[in-house]
Every structure is written in structure tokens, then in C-alpha cells.
Amino acid sequence: ILNVEQSPQSLHVQEGDSTNFTCSFPSSNFYALHWYRWETAKSPEALFVMTLNGDEKKKGRISATLNTKEGYSYLYIKGSQPEDSATYLCAFSPSNTGKLIFGQGTTLQVKP
Amino acid sequence: AAGVIQSPRHLIKEKRETATLKCYPIPRHDTVYWYQQGPGQDPQFLISFYEKMQSDKGSIPDRFSAQQFSDYHSELNMSSLELGDSALYFCASSIRTGGIDEQFFGPGTRLTVL
């Protein structure tokens, strides 16, 4: 059974704080790791797709790193803003068929 | 930009009834994926199609069937509905590039079985 674990489950921070969350996935049979941002009543929005060990991606104040040997990825948000409030999902892809195995998500609440 | 369209957005059915969920992928996308997210659970992969052929299968019950049509839209047919089928059903689409295919998700169909 392939499990993806995310921590913490939820996080409350003040505006301006920087924060990070973890996604753990099986280090064997790795193909790709995806991060999604999901706001209530909206479609999950793709943030990053990473495939290479040591990969680091950045989009504005959000960045992610990947360690395929030990099976984890970190998502960082620098200077959190209230509009960053959402659930952040990571998804592991074990093959090229595109099938995604999701974690349970980290719900971020940024207080003004 | 066009996004993935799912219909209906909400559906209420009785036990043992049937339901059909529809997914319209982003134009030119050739691959469709279906996921089920039960209350308090992670989204679970059900099934995927590439160029109208099934490409992968996950934990899809035998009571469910799906297909992708010539215009690339997909339908998920669910029969003999059970209370446990109440969930948010996501469809995602992608275009096969030979590399990592980024999946774009629709807003989901919330199915409630009473």
C-alpha cells in the first residue's frame, strides 16, 4: 500500500509569518511529486510538479524542495498573506500513467 | 482560460438509484482522471482514460463504470448507490506530452446518497 503523509494537518499563522509543511511519500517506485493548492469551493490548483532528487521550485513567495532518496518534500511560504489560506495537497505519482496518490492535506489559516 | 467542467455540481440520490457524472476536459487535453474524496478522507484515484482507452484503474467499485467519448469528455456511471458513495468526485484532465503530465482539476461533483 502506497501512503502519502502530510504534516501538520492544520496550521494557524499570523500575516507575515513564514511557514512550511512536509509531505512524506514512498521512496521506491517514485515518478513525480505534485503540490496543489485548494481553496474551498474551487478546483485544486497545481503549484509544482517535481521529479528530480534535489529539485527546488519557486512561484512567488511559495517554494518547494524534493528529496526522493528519503521520500519527503517541503513546501515553504514566505511572508504568509490571508489569501494564502487554503488546503495544500501533495500527491505522489508512482508511474507514468498519471495516477496520483494524495496526502490528507495541510490546511493553512493566515490571520490578518 | 478554459478549465475542466464537471456536471452536475451537486447531486442527491436515494440508495439503490443510479447516477451519471460528466467531465469535460480542457480543450486539446486527451487524458481524463477520476478521483473520489469521501468525508474527511484523501482523494482516491478511481480510473483514468487516454485517447478513449482505459489507462489505469484504482479502487473503483464494480458498480461503477466509466468511459471517455470521441470528443474526450468522460462519464462516470454509478449504479446501486450506497450511503458510502456520498463523496466529492473530482475529474482532472491533462495532455500527454511524453514527460510529466500536469493534471488540471475540475471543481468536483458533490454526490449525496440518502
Short account of what is shown:
Chain A is an all-beta fold. Chain A has no helices and eleven strands.
**How many strands appear in the DSSP assignment of chain B?**
11
Measured as a percent range, the helix fraction of chain B is under 10%
Tally of individual helices of chain B: 0
Give the topology string of chain A: H per helix, E per strand: EEEEEEEEEEE
Question: Biggest protein-protein interface?
Answer: A-B, 25 and 25 residues
Helix-strand sequence of chain B: EEEEEEEEEEE
Terminal-residue CA separation of chain B:
36 Å
Low-confidence segments of chain B: none
Percentage of β-strand residues of chain B: over 45%
Give me the number of helical elements of chain A.
Answer: 0
Radius of gyration of chain B: 13 Å
Distance from first to last alpha carbon of chain A: 41 Å
Strand count, sense and barrel status of the largest sheet of chain A are:
6 strands, mixed
Structural class of chain A, by secondary structure, is mainly beta
Mean pLDDT across every amino acid position of chain A: 93
Flag low-confidence runs of chain A. none
If you had to describe this structure to a student in words, what would you say it looks like?
The complex is a heterodimer of chains A (112) and B (114). In chain A, strand 9 and strand 10 form a beta hairpin. Chain A starts with a strand and ends with a strand. In chain A, strands 2, 4, 5, 9, 10 and 11 form a 6-stranded mixed sheet that branches. Chain A has a 5-stranded antiparallel sheet with strand order 1-3-8-7-6, with no helix packed on it. With 112 residues, chain A is mainly beta. Chain A is built from no helices and 11 strands. With 114 residues, chain B is mainly beta. Chain B is 0% helix and 50% strand. Chain B is built from no helices and 11 strands. In chain B, the strands form 2 sheets. In chain B, strands 2, 4, 5, 6, 9, 10 and 11 form a 7-stranded mixed sheet that branches. Chain B has a 4-stranded antiparallel sheet with strand order 1-3-8-7, with no helix packed on it. The N and C termini of chain B lie far apart (36 Å). Chains A and B meet through strand 4, strand 5 and strand 10 of A and strand 4, strand 5 and strand 10 of B.
